[in-house]
Recover the amino acids of this structure.
């Protein structure tokens, strides 16, 4: 006979303010099998947990229902408490009275009735719970970091310094990411490459880090502690071992008209190229789409020039399979596509740039070696207009969120311009200035007060060209919307930060959630900011939401700490909610008839065949058997089984039917 | 005077997307009608059509099935199994005399708190207009009670 204890939590006013908890406890007391039913202000507090423990001992409870918040929040808390009182933790279930009831309904009898229903559902379920033992699985102490920008580099270095092996995968030919493209960084104006390149080199030289550049994740299987990742190493057409990085091939390539991605199209490169001088690894790669040999079958100049004979035109993509225990996602962001701004003439006028192009223009390693020259004619721009919120906070452009970094980098851009062109005029059109960060607001004030940048509060409606000038039509909303017209030489749009291309596909490969804007979703917006819903996969940087560098680095270190904690144990415990095949004494042995429909339905290949043999060794029947190491407990097999021979522990047919019967 | 009809809605949701999405509805304090009772399952792939038949037999007036969007299943393909089963069982349920218009199949992700509230309100309002569902209950329980 079941002896169930029910504990109703008020959660302060959160539940108690809407649901009559005393009444729920009272009603529940009459449910058959319930021997103890109480309500309390905060069940998760120490006194609350002690109440549960004492009741287990005093009333010899065989099951516990805690009616409080979502089990996704506090299930581990209460299962631990139950275990401390000597009861199997899997004999504790939670009824979700907060997220699914009190927070979403108005105060009243109907809501209290619903709360009582939800409690009753769990009482009937827990009556049918069985003691379960967590499954121990080994941990592969090797991490996979996807993305070689500052987030990935920082995470890889921190994990490697904790003494674990790391594979750092980057899709482009060099690590460094967007940070390597920046000229200076806010709020200190220190040179981005000067602070980044030592980290890049450290990552490349670290004995615990294996660098895989020009590579992408092909597929992933497995689970926390035991992932199997397949990485596609794209063919560089260059033997990395033989290549010395002398760069002779890149100077001799006859095809020199290809827009340079690193310089955001402001300069050109050859078909064989090193993305930028400080690239790590400093080995060239052949751009097959633009290489004359790959297009026409003739050329091979680079091969003839190479002193070490490192060019390999026959090199093929290679698939590498890795066993890893944890994954850090650090795939970064992209800027909003340029074709979204016809009203600003982006793409039509050469002197309308986006923020990253201005970074390259201002950078000492950029196409003008840091000199302020406008792209169209190379003249020094006497007047520059910066337009913040180009796309961001604009529902019409599909980006209602704030891109977070633009206010700061626009102030920085205006300052960099003024520092190089003291006599020039810099205007910034803005909606609001968002500069909350250490020394951030001081930085914006410095741009306005010391560097004489004119800030105009209002939007720009249109930009058009007239007599070699860009006419910027805007409004000053601090002067009753007075129209403003500025004849500029160059315009810089602070375009919106968006999720990296292919984020959706990557999320689907990894089974992590993502938001409507394709940014990866954290497991909890406040308390689990670096975890994903998939155990063992962590987030760092702008792949989660727009982030600046200090935040990205902090988050990367946070993700690395999570990985290091995971790797601190040799084995980890997994929830035992897995499928089992029914077994019976002879002569039935099992309800299973060996149709193996479950095998075809299982996404994890966790169903094996088991032969049942008689004493003489003759085969009696072949039935299904679940490999507990592989089963993830989705239950697809249970719904497929024709004879109801396979069931899932914790979500069994008996339990769910009992839940339905209470309603 | 009889009381106005309040439908009984049973929701079968997966743990990873819709249950988490419904949690987000709560965290965001978005209000919705209280007729729904959520049953948590690991995955929509776990949903056996007998569960639906049983829920109607017990007197549910409407059923919501909701899980991860196609391609986003935590278990890779459970939601595809659920969808395919639904396509197949719909005819069988029609044959059994179950009013399939009372079953709503939807996708609500963990980030779609507002969508969950909309879904529940839409279904509740729809079922309220359809009236109580007694036919199958009587059929299923004929000779039992």
């Amino acid at each position: 006979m079941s002896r169930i204890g029910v504990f109703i939590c008020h959660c302060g006013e959160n539940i108690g303010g809407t649901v009559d908890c005393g009444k729920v406890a009272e009603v529940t007391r009459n449910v058959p099998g319930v021997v103890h039913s109480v309500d309390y202000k905060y069940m998760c507090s120490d006194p609350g947990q002690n109440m549960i423990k004492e009741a287990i001992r005093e009333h010899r409870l065989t099951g516990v229902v805690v009616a409080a918040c979502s089990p996704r929040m506090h299930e581990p808390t209460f299962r631990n408490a139950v275990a401390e009182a000597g009861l199997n933790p899997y004999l504790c279930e939670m009824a979700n009275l907060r997220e699914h009831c009190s927070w979403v309904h108005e105060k009243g009898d109907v809501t209290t009735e619903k709360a009582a229903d939800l409690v009753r559902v769990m009482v009937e379920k827990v009556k049918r719970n069985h003691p379960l033992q967590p499954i121990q699985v080994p941990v592969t102490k090797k991490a996979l970091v996807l993305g070689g920008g500052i987030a990935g580099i920082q995470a890889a270095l921190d994990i490697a310094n904790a003494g674990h092996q790391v594979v750092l995968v980057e899709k482009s030919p060099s690590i460094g990411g967007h940070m390597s493209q920046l000229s200076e960084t806010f709020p200190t104006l220190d040179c981005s490459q000067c602070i980044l390149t030592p980290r890049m080199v450290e990552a490349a030289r670290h004995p615990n880090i294996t660098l895989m550049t020009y590579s992408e994740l092909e597929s992933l299987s497995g689970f926390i502690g035991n992932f199997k990742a397949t990485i596609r190493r794209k063919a560089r057409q260059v033997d990395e071992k033989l290549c010395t990085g002398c760069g002779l091939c890149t100077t001799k390539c006859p095809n020199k008209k290809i827009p340079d991605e690193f310089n955001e199209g402001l300069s050109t490169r050859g078909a064989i190229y090193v993305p930028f001088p400080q690239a790590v690894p400093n080995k060239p790669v052949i751009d097959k789409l633009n290489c004359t040999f790959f297009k026409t079958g003739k050329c091979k100049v680079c091969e003839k020039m190479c002193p070490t004979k490192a060019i390999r035109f026959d090199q093929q993509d290679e698939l590498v399979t890795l066993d890893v225990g944890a994954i850090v996602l650090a795939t970064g962001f992209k800027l909003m596509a340029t074709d979204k701004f016809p009203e600003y003439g982006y793409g039509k006028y050469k002197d309308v740039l986006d923020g990253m192009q201005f970074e390259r223009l201002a950078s000492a390693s950029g196409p003008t070696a840091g000199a302020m020259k406008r792209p169209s004619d190379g003249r020094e721009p006497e007047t520059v207009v910066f337009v913040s919120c180009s796309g961001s906070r604009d529902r019409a452009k599909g980006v209602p969120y704030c891109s977070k970094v633009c206010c700061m980098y626009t102030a920085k851009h205006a300052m960099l311009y003024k520092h190089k062109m003291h006599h020039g005029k810099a205007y910034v059109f803005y909606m609001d200035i968002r500069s909350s960060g250490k020394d951030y607001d001081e930085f914006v004030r410095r741009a306005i007060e010391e560097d004489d940048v004119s800030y105009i509060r209002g939007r720009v409606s249109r930009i058009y060209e007239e007599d070699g000038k860009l006419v910027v039509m805007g409004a000053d909303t601090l002067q009753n919307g007075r129209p403003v017209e500025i004849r500029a030489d160059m315009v810089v749009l602070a375009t919106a930060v968006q999720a990296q291309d292919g984020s959706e596909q990557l999320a689907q490969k990894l089974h992590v959630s993502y938001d409507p804007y394709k940014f990866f979703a954290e497991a909890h917006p406040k308390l689990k900011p670096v975890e994903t819903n998939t155990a063992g996969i962590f987030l760092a940087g702008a792949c989660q939401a727009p982030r600046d560098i200090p935040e990205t680095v902090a988050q990367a270190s946070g993700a690395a700490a999570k990985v290091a904690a995971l790797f601190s144990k040799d084995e980890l415990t997994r929830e035992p909610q897995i499928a089992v095949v029914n077994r019976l004494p002879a002569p039935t042995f099992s309800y299973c008839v060996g149709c193996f429909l479950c095998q075809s339905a299982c996404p994890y290949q966790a169903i094996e065949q088991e032969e049942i043999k008689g004493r003489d060794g003759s085969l009696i029947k072949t039935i299904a058997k679940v490999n507990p190491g592989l089963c993830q407990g989705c239950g697809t097999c249970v719904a497929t089984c024709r004879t109801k021979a396979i069931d899932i522990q914790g979500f069994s047919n008996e339990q769910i039917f009992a839940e339905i019967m209470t309603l | 005077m009889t009381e106005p009809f309040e439908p009984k809605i049973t929701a079968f949701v997966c743990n990873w997307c819709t249950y988490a999405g419904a949690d987000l509805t709560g965290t965001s304090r978005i209000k919705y009608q209280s007729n729904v009772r959520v049953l948590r399952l690991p995955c929509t792939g776990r949903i056996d059509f007998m569960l639906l038949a049983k829920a109607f037999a017990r007197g549910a007036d409407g059923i919501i099935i909701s899980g991860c969007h196609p391609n986003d299943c935590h278990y890779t393909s459970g939601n595809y199994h659920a969808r395919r089963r639904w396509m197949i069982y719909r005819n069988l349920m029609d044959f059994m005399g179950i009013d399939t218009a009372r079953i709503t199949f939807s996708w609500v992700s963990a980030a779609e708190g507002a969508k969950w509230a909309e879904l529940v309100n839409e279904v509740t309002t729809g079922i309220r207009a359809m009236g109580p569902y007694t036919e199958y209950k009587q059929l299923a329980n004929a000779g039992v009670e």
Notes: Chain A touches chain B through 51 residues (CB under 8 Å). The first helix of chain A runs from residue 13 to 16.
